[in-house]
Every structure is written in C-alpha cells, then in structure tokens.
Design a protein that fits this description.
The protein is of the alpha/beta class. The protein starts with 12 loop residues before the first helix and ends in a 6-residue tail after the last helix. Strand 9 and strand 10 form a beta hairpin. It has an eight-stranded parallel beta barrel, surrounded by ten helices. It is globular, with a radius of gyration of 19 Å. The longest helix has 24 residues. It binds glyceraldehyde-3-phosphate (G3H), 1,3-dihydroxyacetonephosphate and zinc ion. The site of zinc ion (ZN) has 5 residues, from loops.
C-alpha cells in the first residue's frame, strides 16, 4: 500500500473548496503517455493552476498501471523542477468496480470516481458507499455520478441523455458520503456530441448545439448548496483542430462540442471539476498529422511527438486561462 501523500499528491478536497469560493473549476485532463503528462504539467505550471491528472481504466490497460503511477509521481517532481509546485491530484476516471477503486488507492491514487450511473439507483448508492467507506479510511476523495450522458461512457453507450434528477441528489450525497457528484445536463463524451440535425446554424453557417440544461444544474445546486459538482464530456471540439486533421488526411465528420462560453458559465457555478479528454486527442492528432504530411522524410518520433506536445500545451493553457478560470489559483 502506497499513500499518495508520500509522493506529494493531494486529494481534491481543498482545491474544490477554493474553486467553489473563487468561482472557477479545476481542469481534469486525461493522460495515457509521457507527452500528454508533460504538456499538462508544463501548461498548468506556466498558468499556475491546480490540476487533476485523470486515468481511465482504458489508460491503465494501454500504458500499464505501474508506469502511469510513476508518471504521476514524476509529474509532482517535474512541476517543482519547472519552478512552481502546483497541487496535483491523481484521479481514476469512470471506475466501474470496488476492486478497481481499491487497487488504484493502493497504487497511490488520491481520488477515484466510482461510476454507478448505469445501475438502478439503490445499487448505485450501495456501490458508491462501499467505495467511499474504503477510500475515506485512506483520506482519498470520491466522485460519484447520477444521470447518464448520451454517447459512449467507457464500454457503455446510451442513445439519449438521462438527465440527473435534482430530487435525487441530496439523498444520494447524504447516503453515500461522496465528495463530489458528476451530473448529466447535456454534455457527452467524444468528438461527436450532437447530431447536426439537433443543431441550428449561426449567421456564418456554423452549427450551434442545443444549450446545456443550466436549469437542471441550478436545481441540483439548490438541493446541495456548496457541494462540488463535476461535468464530464466537456470538450469543445475546436474546429480549427478538426480542419488541420482533415486537411492532412483525417476523416472526422460531424464533430460538434460544447461551446466554451457555456463551460465558462458553468465554471462560475458549483461546478468545481471539468473533464476534458477529446480536445487533447484532437490537438495531438493535428500536430502529428501536420508533421507527417509536411515533413514526410521525418522518422524520429521526437520530431513529431514534440510539436504535437507543444500543440497540446497551447490547448491546455487556453482551457485553464479562458474556460476554467483556474489560472493563477495554485
Ligand atoms: O470518459 C472517458 C475518457 O475520455 C477516457 O476515455 O476510456 O478511451 O481512455 P478512454
Ligand atoms: P470529452 O470526451 O468531452 O473530452 O470528455 C472527457 C471525460 O468526460 C472524461 O471522463
Ligand atoms: Zn467522463
């Protein structure tokens, strides 16, 4: 058993309390490899932002659980070496079993999500409470989820949103003891969050998706005042990145994300954590495709992963400064 405290990580409790009081949100960026971790830490150190390094079960399978944990441990030292030790949380994204959460806690994670949102309500409560009881013994914070996002949530896919029922949130939070709650208000995972027929067009012909359900967010906030809320599926799918990818041989179609102004607005509410993965994937892919197309003789991985890492860093700096509002809060 390794405690996250021994390696300099923090849980989410204090940073969420500060985010709530300061009306901003903490970035939760997914990572699977060295370059993504470097870009996240470089951006957040430069912006002096706290950060949540997020690991999915797919990331654990891809990269190996031990290596990812050492990368996170390295991130703590790396941020100090870059000149400013920011608060770093190592968080399990969409944990689907007690055993997975327990294993992550034993490996040095400081925060876990137990996602029982697809289960009947009482089973979600029971599973989440079991994880909370174990996690809190180790001062690890726990995120639960109520409501189902449309699209693909790990291996489960749903055709339509099941919005969170505000009437359930107080009961869920008090029965489980969770530290934060992910809710469903119209965001979804991936780069195709809406079908074009669900959108309208603005004066320039750009597709505008239906707005997030701020009414549900506000109703949830009223039920659990001052309690940290989490938004998953919050990539904005920048069309300039999509265009670079498609100009250089990609085939992304009907990509539509959550407009940044809406996330900015959400970040000023009780939303304390905003999850962004797909936008990072797009930035990295755009960087790699650019080099592959424009410098076809290049075969040193550092020569295409390095520029891709720089594009990622630029994206993360923009998110922290202009969307989440967490710059200079570390
Ligand atoms: O919510 C899911 C995250 O984007 C992680 O995706 O399971 O493909 O690693 P993944
Ligand atoms: P995106 O696919 O919108 O980036 O969402 C990521 C996420 O919610 C990770 O849990
Ligand atoms: Zn998610």
């Amino acid at each position: 058993m390794l405690s996250y405290k021994e390696i300099g990580l923090v849980n989410s409790r204090d940073i969420f309390a500060k985010a709530m009081a300061g009306k901003y949100a903490i970035p939760a960026f997914n990572f699977n490899n060295l370059e993504q971790m470097q870009a996240i830490i470089q951006a957040c150190v430069e912006m002096k932002s706290p950060v949540i390094l997020q690991v999915s079960s797919g990331a654990r399978k891809y990269a190996n659980q031990t290596l990812l944990r050492y990368l996170a441990q390295g991130a703590v030292e790396y941020s100090k070496e870059l000149g400013y030790g920011i608060p770093i949380v190592l968080h399990l994204d969409h944990g689907d079993s007690f055993e997975l959460c327990q294993s992550c806690i034993e490996y040095g994670f400081s925060s876990v999500m137990i996602d029982g949102s697809h289960l009947p309500y009482d089973e979600n409560v029971a599973l989440t409470k079991k994880v909370v009881d174990y996690a809190h013994k180790h001062d690890v914070t726990v995120e639960g989820e109520l409501g189902v996002l449309a699209g693909v949530e790990d291996e489960v896919s749903a055709e339509h949103h099941t919005y969170t029922e505000p009437k359930d949130v107080q009961d869920f939070v008090s029965k489980t003891g969770v530290d934060s709650l992910a809710i469903s208000i119209g965001t979804s995972h991936g780069a195709n969050k809406f079908k074009p027929e669900q959108c309208t067009r603005d004066a320039n012909g750009v597709l505008v998706p239906p707005p997030l359900r701020f009414d549900i967010l506000e109703a949830c906030e009223k039920m659990i005042p001052g309690f940290p809320i989490v938004l998953h599926g919050s990539s904005s799918v920048p069309q300039d990145l999509v265009q670079i990818i498609n100009n250089y041989g990609g085939k992304l179609v009907d990509t539509i994300g959550i407009p940044e102004e809406q996330l900015r607005k959400a970040a000023t509410s009780a939303v304390c954590k905003i999850n962004i993965d797909s936008d990072g994937r797009l930035a990295m892919t755009a960087g790699i495709r650019d080099i592959m197309t424009n410098k076809p003789a290049e075969f040193d991985p550092r020569k295409y992963l390095g520029p891709a890492r720089d594009m990622l860093k630029t994206l993360y700096m923009h998110k922290v400064k202009n969307v989440l509002g967490s710059a200079f809060k570390a």
